[in-house]
Write a structure and sequence with these properties.
- The protein is an alpha+beta fold.
- The chain has three helices and seven strands; from the N terminus they run E-E-E-E-E-H-H-E-E-H.
- The protein has helices at 82-89, 102-109, 134-141, and strands spanning 11-15, 22-26, 39-44, 50-55, 61-68, 113-118, 123-130.
- It has a four-stranded antiparallel beta sheet, with no helix packed on it. Strands 5-7-6 form a three-stranded antiparallel beta sheet, with helices on one face.
- Strand 6 and strand 7 form a beta hairpin.
- The protein is globular.
Length: 142
């Protein structure tokens, strides 16, 4: 088995173009298949969230997913189903987009689909959307 990556070295500070928000980008070599044609970037956000960006020049659809290391095993005994309940709440609205079902409506209006699932150890959210609507979807997703 190959050694685990060192997540504390190899990251360089960067800023987003327009809003100048800080993040770190991995500048080392990523191990990819010799037949891989997509471009990969590994980022770390200020909240320590690690992000893998994959660019496929031939794709017409954009996708994103987020996996959170919380699931059914993390629920208190007195609140069974809490993780699944929270999964649904997080897709309903937000402070920036308070309209009920704003996220799901935006995705649907732009040719996409979204869903989520909770298992014993993780909760995963994901969506697909037309590439030109990705920025708005990510804003709502965040």
């Amino acid at each position: 088995m190959p050694p685990l990556p060192d997540w504390d070295t190899g990251f360089e500070p960067r800023e987003t173009c327009d809003s100048r928000l800080p993040y770190l980008e991995f500048t080392g070599a990523l191990e990819l298949s010799a037949s891989e044609t997509r471009q990969y970037r590994l980022l770390r956000l200020p909240n320590n969230l690690t992000v893998v960006c994959v660019h496929d020049a031939d794709a017409t659809t954009a996708v994103a997913s987020l996996s959170v290391n919380v699931g059914g095993y993390d629920e208190p005994r007195e609140l069974p189903g809490l993780a699944h309940f929270c999964e649904h709440l997080l897709l309903m609205s937000s402070e920036k987009y308070p309209g009920e079902d704003e996220y799901r409506s935006y995705i649907s209006d732009h040719g996409g689909d979204c869903n989520a699932f909770t298992d014993f150890a993780n909760t995963c959210y994901y969506f697909s959307i037309t590439s030109d609507a990705l920025e708005g979807a990510l804003d709502r997703f965040s």
